[in-house]
């Protein structure tokens, strides 16, 4: 198996499956350290955890795997190899011998939603991306399922299933997004703007947490899981 865009959660799941071996890839050294610390006790001699960027054409270019998992990979690629998503699908085709599974998130920071829960998630997402951009970083860019399905067919995959699952956000998500904004503030050159953003982050966090406490989790958007096979 190949976990083509690995994290602690995806590799924890992969490592529990009955495989002869697995290879996991991350483009971040920091993520590599987190994953290794968590998963090293489960690693067998034949398992591999690698740091690499799929933009490098020779990275694992001679390898092919029975099963490939791309867990939120297409959205995350933009942080390490901007505008590489179409090429990433073609790379996945080269790496896949049989089955490919793609997990993704329908974009949710585009048009302003009508419902209150959606508006809160929308505001959190746009504030997060704004802080990252002002700090000189690259936010993720999610791709809708219909785009992925089209790219898979063009690359030579046969799509077997595409299922959507509604997302329910709670306190952990709210705090993680606000904390990400705070981590970006020291890297924003305009210190007056950073100060105003800090106040705005605190107000939005308080409002969102209060809404969840009064109304329950925020239901907005959907994840999708696509199962595809290489066309014989």
Radius of gyration: 19 Å
* Percentage of residues in strands: 15-25%
* Residue-averaged pLDDT: 95
- Count of alpha and pi helical runs: 8
Question: Strand count, sense and closure of the main sheet?
Answer: 7 strands, mixed
Strand order of the largest sheet: 3-2-1-4-5-7-6
**Total beta strands:** 7
In one word, what is the shape? globular
Distance between the termini: 19 Å
Query: Helix-strand pattern, N to C?
Result: EHEHEEHHEHHEHHE
SSE-based structural type = alpha/beta
Keywords for this entry:
single chain, 232 residues, alpha/beta, seven-stranded mixed β-sheet, 44% helix
Q: Can you offer a commentary on this structure?
A:
- The chain has helices at residues 8-15, 29-39, 73-76, 85-95, 116-134, 145-155, 171-184, 191-215, and strands at 2-3, 23-26, 48-51, 65-71, 96-105, 157-169, 218-230.
- By secondary structure, it is of the alpha/beta class.
- The chain has a seven-stranded mixed β-sheet with strand order 3-2-1-4-5-7-6, with helices on both faces.
- Helix 5 (116-134) packs antiparallel against helix 8 and helix 7 (171-184) runs antiparallel to helix 8.
SSE layout:
Blueprint: E1 2-3, H1 8-15, E2 23-26, H2 29-39, E3 48-51, E4 65-71, H3 73-76, H4 85-95, E5 96-105, H5 116-134, H6 145-155, E6 157-169, H7 171-184, H8 191-215, E7 218-230
Helix pairs in contact: 1-2, 4-6, 5-7, 5-8, 7-8
